[in-house]
Amino acid sequence: MKFLKLLLLFFVVQMQAQQGGMWIPSLLEGMNETEMKNLGMKMSASDIYDVNKSSLKDAVPQFNGGCTAEVISSQGLLLTNHHCGFGEIQAHSTVENNYLQDGFWAMKKEDELPNKDLEVTFIVKIEDVTTQILSGVEMLTSEAEKQKKIQENISNLNKSYTKESYQGIKIRTFYEGNQYMLFVTESYTDIRLVGAPPSSIGKFGSDTDNWVWPRHTGDFSLFRIYADKNNLPADYSKDNVPYTPKHFLPISLDGVSEDDFTLVFGYPGRTTEYLPAVAVEQIVNESNPAKIEIRDRALKVTDGFMRKDKAIKIQYASKYAGIANYWKKWIGETQGLTKSNAVQVKRDQEKAFQQKVVKAGKQAEYGNLLADFEKNYNEILPYALSRDYFLEVMLRNTELMGLGFKLYQLEQIQSTRGDQAFTDRKNNLRDGLGEFYKDFNVQVDEKVFEQLIDLYLNKSPQQFIPADLKNTNITKLTADVYGTSKMTTYDGVKELLDGDTQTVLKNLNNDKGYQLIKALSDAFLKEVNPKYDAINTELNALQRTYMKAQLELNKDARIFPDANSTLRVTYGKVKGYNPRDAVAYEPVTYLGGVIEKYIPGDYEFDVSSKLIELYNAKDFGPYGENGKMPVNFIGTNHTTGGNSGSPAIDAHGNLIGLNFDRVWEGTMSDIYYDPAICRNIMVDMRYVLFIIDKYAGAKNLIDEMKLVHPKNKKQSSKKQKIKNKKKKN
Ligand code: ARG
Ligand code: ASP
């Protein structure tokens, strides 16, 4: 009995242990490869990453710094999310040609649209450079000296490393400073827009459905990489030609079933999976609630205006989406951390860690770590909270104060770098402000300010609020600032910035809006920020040692490095989940679900008549399945922001899905991954193909792709099995 229990425990641990983690593609051999094969993968690690022959990594560039994309044809056709290409689609849109609203399809290459400042970056090679970067660091005693030496080593290696002239180098730290990796990169800058569905498909469900399952969004767009005659990176030229990739992903028409193996390959931005319990506790109890409350108020005000006024709705649509995205994520994250008991789980792990330290006789090195964390986190709390309030209220959510802070920095430049630097920056700032005022509405911002300054003055840690701002009458302050400040209009701010340095500084310092942001910035930069930085440096050093200890004391554990915007592999299975008691979610959604959500004329849930016709006629081409059209599916792949646009790949290396989001209950996966409720959301590739082919009629694009049927073989072997079974019976 005991043995059985142990065995069961072993399997449960195994089951959970197999998933979660974002792994370095050059280091998959061994544990990861075994796990992936156990999950059903039919490839080998070298099919995913290889420096000597083409491999999957050659088809997966980073898209414009913050997203991922994949090459899906021999002519450099590139697939990413609609929300990743949103800026480009918007930039090409006008009232007459509203590509955001109606979609855009290039039926021939001449129609593809070039984009300013858009680049994709491939990884050529990954190399461990830990020894070079940490050389001479160990013997230094102060943390500041260590960091300085590391920076020196990095810049030396950057200079001395041999590479081609068109290649770049990135050196990044892994495991919080315990490992360093060098990436040789190739960046292409002539990237043209090829196709985008209308927002009613690409952004279907908008903010209401964001971070939510069941989901029905066709979140994709298409671009093409262009290169010079030698297939090398080149700036836009009409003489450039479509890029020939080292590898492109074939697309599977067979779709997915529950428990199928999936691998997601991309550039996850940032996670903090190894925080001590005390840090997670602060996120749950202090920082998330504060940030959520601030954005709650800002969003409520803005939404009120957007619903009443069409012009305001356009002005604030993109800003609102950005603010709502993380607001909603934090709410889900807090609930998930609470529900999964993350703090207690961490406390238990810490107890076990402490025992291991004793057992290994390492008290001198690691015995005080947890107590030191506790002490430093308690000490940093008021500073960290105050910083959250400053960043959220002043810089992120009240536009006038955000602009005021830029002017404050301008004044700082004058005092640190002199008149010429001041004038250069001033002119630059002034010319760029047209964009800002185009989407600025002073009534909206005034109401947001009134709500948020109240929180700032009354709920942020009081010891850092300047004395003369305590017990302020909020209504009066708001009326004073917005009634008199010249910053409320473009003409006003141009007036403020007119004249020689002394005049500008005098005018600024006479402005009530400027006076307020200056007083608050001074207080923040003097009383809060230096102390925050000092304790934070301390915490980073502790985190590095804690990581080192875990790696040392848990030799066989699956410890993956936190995300850092470098290329990673994560893998799992197609899987539903139970969000709440008695509720079970299936892993696949269908076009019928789009029709169920359809609200005619609604800005989030409208459906175009063309799509409804195709649905009613069940005209799904070769992309449907048993008379239904799959739309989205979920899996246990561990992803985060930056993974948007990442390919979901099947057991054989074919493209089956396009990653774009996570489920609400599992957004805590940035801090604590729980395989029971953490799921990533992907668009089924068959839906992408259906929209391109049947909805848009862009057959030209389908023709350049490679469509495959990898499951055919499996299907016949299934039949075989059934036959065998029958024989037995
Ligand atoms: N939640 C996804 C991500 O973090 C998608 C965001 C797209 N924006 C939106 N408001 N729907 O990026
Ligand atoms: N939607 C995110 C992105 O844009 C992905 C995620 O956070 O799951 O990268």
Helix content: 40-55%
- Distance from N terminus to C terminus (CA atoms, Å) equals 33 Å
The computed structural class is alpha+beta
Each distinct ligand: arginine, aspartic acid
How large, in whole angstroms, is the Cα Rg? Answer: 27 Å
What percent strand? 5-15%
What does this structure look like?
- With 729 residues, the chain is of the alpha+beta class.
- It has a domain at 277-548.
- The chain is 50% helix and 14% strand.
- The protein contains 25 helices and 23 strands.
- The strands form five sheets. Strands 3, 4, 5, 6, 10, 11 and 12 form a seven-stranded antiparallel sheet that branches. Strands 15-14-20-21-22-19-18 form a seven-stranded antiparallel sheet. The protein has a five-stranded antiparallel sheet with strand order 2-1-7-9-8.
- Strand 16 and strand 17 (583-585) form a beta hairpin.
- Helix 14 (369-397) packs across helix 15.
- The chain is globular and about 75 Å long.
- The two termini are 33 Å apart.
- Mean pLDDT is 94; it is low at 6-17 and 714-729.
- Bound molecules: arginine (ARG) and aspartic acid (ASP).
